[in-house]
Amino acid sequence: MPTINHHSDRQLLLQISEGDEQAFATLVKMYSGLLFTYLFKLTKDRDIASDVVQEIFTQLWLTRESLKGVESFRSWLFVISRHHAVRMLKNIDRENRIRQEWHQLTQTNSINDEARDQASLKEAYDALVNKAIDQLPPQQKKVWILARMKGKKYAEIAGEMNISRETVKKYLQIASSSIVDHIKSQGLPIIIAFLIMEL
C-alpha cells in the first residue's frame, strides 16, 4: 500500500483536479481500505460501509476541480464520510419507522369505517406493488424480491444468482425506481412510493 502523507496527498489532489485518472486510482487505493474499515466500525453494516465508500469516491471524482483547495485531505475525507454514513443510517431508521407505522395502521382488526378504509387502501397498495413487480424484467424482479421481501444482503443475492454484488445493487436501484414510478403514476400518496425506495 502506498505511504500516506500530506505531501503525496497534495500532489495527488492537484493531479486529480486536472483530470488525472491514474492519480485518482492511486488515491482510491490509498484510502478505500482505511475508509471502509472506519465506516464498518461506525455503521456495523458491510453493505452500508461499502456503498458509502463508493459514493464518496464517485463524488470526489465528479467534483475533482474543488480538491485542490483541500488542505488536510485525510481529515476532510473522514469527516464527510462520517456525515454521509450518519445521514444514511438516519434515512434507514426513518424508513423502518414508516414501515412499522404502516404495518400498525393496516393490521387493525377494528370493524369501523376507518379500519375498512385502511384495509382497502392496503389491498389496493399490495395489488399495485405486485403488478409493478410482475412487470419487472426477470432478473430485476428476483433481486427485488430477495432483497425487499426476504431481507437478503447484496452478497447473499449475488452468490445465489451468480452475479456480482454491483449488478445486484444496480438491478435493485432500477427495480425500485420502476416500482415507485408505477405507484406514483397511479396517484397514490408519495409516502407509499417512499416505502419502496432504497436509501
From TrEMBL:
Family that this chain belongs to: Belongs to the sigma-70 factor family. ECF subfamily.
Keyword Transcription: yes
Superkingdom to which the source organism belongs: Bacteria
Protein name per its UniProtKB record: Sigma-70 family RNA polymerase sigma factor
Cell inner membrane in keyword set: no
Gene3D superfamilies linked: 1.10.1740.10, Winged helix-like DNA-binding domain superfamily/Winged helix DNA-binding domain
Domain RNA polymerase sigma-70 region: 27-93
InterPro entries: RNA_pol_sigma-70-like, RNA_pol_sigma-70_dom, RNA_pol_sigma70_r2, RNA_pol_sigma70_r4_t2, RNA_pol_sigma_r2, RNA_pol_sigma_r3/r4-like, WH-like_DNA-bd_sf
PANTHER family found in the cross-reference section: RNA POLYMERASE ECF-TYPE SIGMA FACTO, RNA POLYMERASE SIGMA-70 FACTOR ECF SUBFAMILY
Domain RNA polymerase sigma factor 70 region 4 type stretches: 130-173
Keywords attached to this entry: Sigma factor, Transcription, Transcription regulation
